[in-house]
Amino acid sequence: MIGPSTFAFDHVDRMSDHRGLFEHAKGPMRREEHGYCVDDNARLLVVASRERDQGSAHRLCRLALSFVLGAQSIDGRSRNRMDRDGRWTDDFATDDCWGRSLWGLGAVAAHHSDPTIRRRALVGFDNGVRQRSPWRRAMAFAALGAADVLGDDADHGPARALLVDAVEVIGPLPAGSWQWPEPRLAYANAALAEALIAAGAALSNDLALDRGLTMLAWLFELETPAGHLSPTGVGGRGPGDVAPRFDQQPIEAAAMADACWRAYTVTGDRSWWEGVEVAAKWFVGGNDTALPMYDDVSGGGFDGLQPEGANTNQGAESTLALISTMQRARSFAPSP
């Protein structure tokens, strides 16, 4: 593996300024002209909440928290994009940025060591959790934050209600061999399975839990045909498509690591630990091109894996996916 998870925080620190985390990079250099987004600042909240409140993680968590809270409307919806001059450029909505903001706020509210930061995050979570989205992934991301909040406060009714609704929106599995609630895989696929596993465990809903575990086992088998992770590419994947599929994105490896970590912690089944390890190995050459997917000088994660090699731009999403995956890989080791 590539060393402590804090290694890549140095790159995230360089990718940010006083407003927030910039979205894109050219190589290791941030591209300020493309501005910022809530999606990435919410992802930063998730990974920062897993670290000790010191160094870069200390500054970045507070920076991202202010950014995400500043994107919220009074009714709990969220904007996503801000230009380099600090102007919001889109409208309030309940799409992925809303879901990811609840994930980040819920993670901080449940896990951060500073009670003042936890309270600020919970206020934002409580505001956003009043909303609902028709989109599966937005509800799945929100459900992960709600599961964290409910794990910290079993009497938090709004978090429980959102989990119930997320199970409904993600939907049932079809009959036959395609064990997925959508006709095609898209992006952050394992997050759908993880949301069902988290919701099933939090709600004592065995049907949701079993559905999530079934989806994850099916997805892992589909995406490891040669023993290494070969995730669905940006074009998606349907029943008749053959792997490998490119352009492969680091968020797929991160979602797989998170989901397998969740399955392991919920079930105690050590076979799920293999999924975390396989996802981590994808970043260090255990992939379809046998090339590393990070820069060992900057600590940044590469933006995508293509047939001819890596896209060596080191944007926020990719680096945060790297951090998240390595955090899960190092969180604990299963007993022999």
Key features?
single chain; 336 residues; mainly alpha; Glycosyltransferase; 2 domains; two-stranded antiparallel ribbon; two-stranded antiparallel sheet; 12 helices; 6 strands
- The overall pLDDT average reads 95
Shape: globular
Percentage of helical residues?
Answer: 40-55%
CATH class of the largest domain: Mainly Alpha
Which sheet architecture does the biggest sheet show? 2 strands, antiparallel
Distance between the termini: 20 Å
Strand content: under 5%
From the alpha carbons, calculate the radius of gyration and give it in angstroms.
18 Å
Estimated structural class = mainly alpha
Question: Count of DSSP E strands?
Answer: 6
Written as H for each helix and E for each strand, in order along the chain, the element string is: HEEEHHEHHHHHHHHEEH
Number of helices: 12
Enumerate the spans where pLDDT stays under 50 for 5 or more consecutive residues: none
Q: What is the number of independent domains?
A: 2
Instruction: Fill in the CATH topology of the largest domain.
Output: Glycosyltransferase
Strand order of the largest sheet: 1-2
